[in-house]
Amino acid sequence: MAAIVHPLLSLLASLTRQELARQVTYLKAENAILRSKLPDRIMLSNQERRRLVRHGKKLGPRIRELISIVSYSTFRRWVRALEEAATRPETICRRSARRTIRRRWI
Asked: What domain count does the chain have?
């Protein structure tokens, strides 16, 4: 029984991969068309950058083939900046801390 089920499951899995590949190809073409209608430079918020980095890091080096909104070097710069921010201890600005203390006393 297992000898029959395994090839069938393998066939279904390969069909699913092929269908996903076709969907990705379509979405890349659609994205290219939409991108051509936008201005040259798109401004992204920090939240949008973090979202792209979160999803893009999961793809690893394959992101280079998919990325279309920004250049690969910009994406890598965002990744480095977020990684550095995660390891850097949070500092308190002394000047703003003084203002806060003064406001409490007044």
From this structure: 2
